[in-house]
């Protein structure tokens, strides 16, 4: 029987749903607490043999990609792959992949100094969005309304970690006060939901209080979400999209997607589907 | 399934019998995230701050 290793750093309600789905579907699941993990990078015998395939669920981006890289080097399959996770965890790399695949995505610049950022902002037009290239749950995402606020915000970034001095500047899409999260597993869009921004917020992240509402997966949504998932390397993803006057645009592809809210509102059995997909990948 | 009381709103929270130390459970009433702590037979839950710099989906 194929054994799945569930890699985690914090066991959240999402991972609990995976554990319960494994129990009710007879899946052999081993919990791998990465807080206790020490992997030998020079081990030629690949002795970390607790599972045949791994489901990567670490909340920490840096921890997850380094563990995945190590396990892949030892010949293990990990969902999602190092390549896909590295791309999805970095907004600049995601934008490049989406753009190359001709998937509609917001107009975006990257700049590295205050002056070049101001130039990029003039090209894009105000208001615009400044996002960290690595970061989640809407942290440090800022609306820049004019050059004065741009100078202040960028100056504050100059005192932060150097990764915050990679200025990823994106046009502010005119959209309803909601966005769309579509969950893709392999070549299927299995569920979708609206994420409504709370009344005192423009960010729709449910971690920021965004409210989830079930949404029917339309052919357009399915086609675009699957193409976005394939553009970053294929696997299991939460694809984020916005509605514009000219159609849907993809702005993010998430690689260790939280799903408790989409499961709650759509009743899609994402934990079981994730386990089935992971088992399929073990056989490849 | 054991029952614990939410420290914020006092709602009943069902904790899985095989909950691991550090597992996060959510209060069904107020949505507060709580961390399970196990010491031998004793089990407690307390609010958790779930955010570090590179955390998230």
In short:
Chain A has helices at 13-24, 61-73, 82-88, 91-100, 114-124, 147-157, 219-231, 260-266, 270-282; strands at 3-8, 28-33, 53-56, 77-79, 108-111, 128-131, 142-144, 167-171, 178-185, 188-196, 211-215, 236-244, 247-254. Chain A is of the alpha+beta class. With 57 residues, chain B is mainly beta.
List the main descriptive attributes of the protein structure presented here.
heterodimer, A: 284 residues, alpha+beta, Rossmann fold, Dna Ligase, domain 1, D-amino Acid Aminotransferase, Chain A, domain 1, 5-stranded antiparallel sheet, 9 helices, B: 57 residues, mainly beta, Rubrerythrin, domain 2, 3-stranded antiparallel sheet, 0% helix, globular
Q: Which range does the strand content of chain A fall in? A: 25-35%
Strands side by side in the biggest sheet of chain B: 3-4-5
What's the total number of strands of chain B?
A: 5
| CATH fold call of chain B | Rubrerythrin, domain 2
Q: What is the total domain count of chain A? A: 3
Query: What is the level 1 CATH name of the largest domain in chain A?
Result: Alpha Beta
Helix content of chain B: under 10%
Helix and strand arrangement:
The complex is a heterodimer of chains A (284) and B (57).
Chain A: E1 3-8, H1 13-24, E2 28-33, E3 53-56, H2 61-73, E4 77-79, H3 82-88, H4 91-100, E5 108-111, H5 114-124, E6 128-131, E7 142-144, H6 147-157, E8 167-171, E9 178-185, E10 188-196, E11 211-215, H7 219-231, E12 236-244, E13 247-254, H8 260-266, H9 270-282
Parallel strand pairs in A: 1-2, 1-3, 3-4
Antiparallel strand pairs in A: 5-8, 6-7, 6-8, 9-10, 9-12, 10-11, 12-13
Helix pairs in contact in A: 1-9, 5-6
Chain B: E1 2-5, E2 12-15, E3 24-26, E4 33-39, E5 42-47
Antiparallel strand pairs in B: 1-2, 3-4, 4-5
Can you put this structure into words, describing what you see?
The complex is a heterodimer of chains A (284) and B (57). With 284 residues, chain A is α+β, with helices and mostly antiparallel strands. In chain A, 34% of the residues lie in helices and 26% in strands. Chain A is built from nine helices and 13 strands. In chain A, strands 11-10-9-12-13 form a five-stranded antiparallel beta sheet. In chain A, strands 2-1-3-4 form a four-stranded parallel beta sheet, sandwiched between helices. Chain A starts with a strand and ends with a helix. Chain B is mostly beta strands and 57 residues long. Chain B has a single domain, classed as Rubrerythrin, domain 2, CATH 2.20.28. At the A-B interface, α1 and α2 of A face β3 of B.
